[in-house]
Design a protein that fits this description.
about 600 residues, glucomannan 4-beta-mannosyltransferase, golgi apparatus, Spore Coat Polysaccharide Biosynthesis Protein SpsA, Chain A
Length: about 600
């Protein structure tokens, strides 16, 4: 059955596509009738001057030598021109048009999400308009205590020395009747020292009357999904109606359950209530956070703000579907079990569970007003490992679950289209591919291949449209927008490699790497830090980024010296500089090669 939200979402998507096509046509930007062969007629003018100059340099002024060299150079140049014009340019031209189509798909998707997000903000839409929500009676009243369902809070962790106290303490201080709350610490730590500290912390809270369980495993099979699955197998879990999940660096406010649980209690068709991650004091006052630690964390915050404000908000308001963020959410136990429980077949077990639950007809609610404090990766390496895992896992899940979405019987055709096209194809495949191939490969190469034609609307209008769409929902971050653009240019290479790894199931597609936390808000001097190991130079720099910077700077210099039809050298120099800085792990905090 198609719901009003789904119909509205489809209508907004159609309007976004129509608006994009109408704008392109009115500007005369879209013209796919241009023949493949009719490209770059200005190449002769450019090279007729370059080749004689090159011959003269190689000849060194000796006429006989110059004659011999000129014949050799001219012969090789003729071969290059034929190969370039007959093989390389046509191949790249096909890639250009594929990228143009993918770019249009991307801008339509971004316009749709932003239009929904802005509409939600403009009318002041709240989840309570669509789903019933009523406050619970006081937890201290005998009458009110009977209304509270049994809730279990799961905290999976792995060698979390710097933050384990924060997450356990925040979970144990949640406002909920003590006889209705179970805190389950799933400790996969391999370090005996850290494992002992976590166990002592659990015993400390247990002595205060908190019903806290300390669970360990003999192996780390399945990683986080395996730990959560182990926790669900415990006997006391069967009495719990809802499961709240927090990663080790997340600290919910005491009223978190009081604000989220009523959505599940009053709406039997809702499986998940997702809160927003918060990194700054503008969201949660009096909290020490790391969103302003460096330029890297500022750019990350902008990325996550867009994800929650636009993508999660749009999915929730239209199709009541979005990806579970793996933490800061409350699940209905029945929905988890009906979906088949936690599976470790990908590195995005949270997204996997969300998709499977949605295929069973369950609905999700995103509540942006509820924010949970968390920590951003503080180093470039940690952020790259996190992004690779997410990008690779999402693409791999698309490969594994696409057919299940097609044959699902409990969701509408519109929702199937949204899940397959918008959620998976555009966001998990198209976005990383087109951004890397077009702007980091084709555009730089085009300065050396004058036969190649790249439409101006593909390299100017569409990027500008995406920039405006992103800026509208992030006005506070306008001053760091240039840095965000350059940073995302670097990250597209990693995300494309991750997406290809997941789609083709290449080596390492199911590799799980825990994101290292530093616990920037920890002021407990009694917790000793592990000694830092000394790294070799090659472990402190990123050779792929440095190699790419050399390629981009070379293309920029070539474009500057042999100025042809295009003038991309300014952008290419900036991109090359961004790759170079991140290659040396410079993240804007005056420290590099760490």
């Amino acid at each position: 059955m198609v719901e009003a939200g789904e119909i509205g979402g489809a209508a907004v998507f159609a309007l976004a596509a129509a608006a994009a096509l109408s704008t392109a046509s009115s500007l005369g930007a879209v013209d796919f009738r241009r023949p493949l062969a009719a490209v770059g007629g200005g190449g002769a003018f450019e090279w007729d001057g370059v080749v004689p100059w090159l011959i003269g340099v190689l000849g060194g002024g000796d006429e006989a030598a110059a004659g011999g060299v000129s014949v050799g150079v001219a012969a090789w140049y003729e071969v290059w021109v034929r190969v370039r014009g007959g093989v390389i340019a046509p191949t790249l031209q096909v890639a250009v048009w594929v990228c143009m189509v993918m770019s249009v798909m991307l801008v339509v998707e971004a316009t749709f999400n932003s239009a929904v997000s802005l509409g939600v903000k403009a009318i002041g839409w709240r989840p309570e308009w669509r789903f019933k929500w009523e406050p619970l009676a006081g937890a201290d009243e005998e009458k009110g205590r009977g209304e509270y369902p049994m809730v279990m809070v799961q905290i999976p962790m792995y060698n979390e020395l710097e933050v384990y106290k924060l997450s356990i303490g925040a979970a144990c201080e949640l406002k909920w009747p003590k006889d209705k709350l179970i805190v389950q610490v799933l400790d996969d730590s391999t370090d005996p020292f850290i494992k002992n500290l976590v166990e002592l912390e659990c015993e400390s809270w247990a002595s205060k009357g908190v019903n806290i369980k300390y669970v360990t495993r003999s192996s780390r099979k399945g990683f986080k999904a395996g730990a959560l699955k182990k926790g669900m197998e415990c006997d006391y879990t069967k009495q719990c109606e809802y499961i709240a999940i927090f990663d080790a660096d997340f600290q919910p406010e005491p009223n978190f359950l009081l604000r989220t649980a009523p959505f599940l209690m009053h709406n039997p068709n809702v499986a998940l209530v997702q809160a927003r991650w918060a990194f700054g004091k503008d969201f949660i006052p009096n909290f020490a956070v790391n969103d302003t630690t460096s330029l890297l964390t500022r750019v990350q915050k902008m990325f996550f703000d867009y994800h929650f404000k636009v993508e999660q908000e749009a999915g929730s308001a239209t199709f009541a579907f979005f990806s579970f963020n793996g933490t800061a959410g409350v699940w209905r136990t029945t929905a988890i079990n009906e979906a088949g429980g936690w599976k470790d077949r990908t590195t995005v077990e949270d997204m996997d569970l969300a998709v499977r639950a949605s295929l069973n007809g369950w609905k999700f609610i995103y509540v942006g007003d509820i924010r949970v404090k968390s920590e951003l990766p503080s180093t470039y390496g940690a952020y790259c490992r996190q992004q690779f895992r997410w990008a690779c896992g999402g693409a791999n899940l698309f490969r594994k679950i696409a057919m299940d979405v097609l044959v699902a019987k409990d969701i509408s055709l519109l929702k199937k289209f949204y899940m397959l096209y918008s959620f998976f194809l555009v966001r998990r495949v198209v976005a990383p591919m087109v951004a890397c191939v077009l702007y980091n490969i084709i555009v730089p190469l085009s300065v050396m291949i004058p036969e190649l034609f790249i439409p101006i609307w593909g390299v100017a209008y569409i990027p500008m449209a995406l920039l405006i769409i992103t800026t509208i929902r992030n006005p506070r971050n306008l001053h760091i927008m240039p840095f965000w653009i350059l940073f995302e240019s670097v990250m597209t290479v990693l995300r494309m490699r991750a997406a290809l790894t997941g789609l083709m199931e290449l080596s390492g597609f199911n590799k799980w790497t825990v994101t290292k936390k530093i616990g920037s808000s920890v002021e407990d001097t009694q917790v000793p830090l592990l000694p830092k190991t000394r790294k070799r130079l090659r472990d402190r720099i990123n050779l792929p980024e440095i190699g790419f910077s050399v390629f981009l700077i070379f293309c920029a210099s070539y474009n500057l010296i042999f100025h042809g039809k295009t003038s991309y050298y300014f952008n290419l120099y900036l991109q090359g500089l961004a790759f170079l800085l991140l290659g040396f792990n410079f993240t804007g905090n005056f420290a590099c090669c760490q």
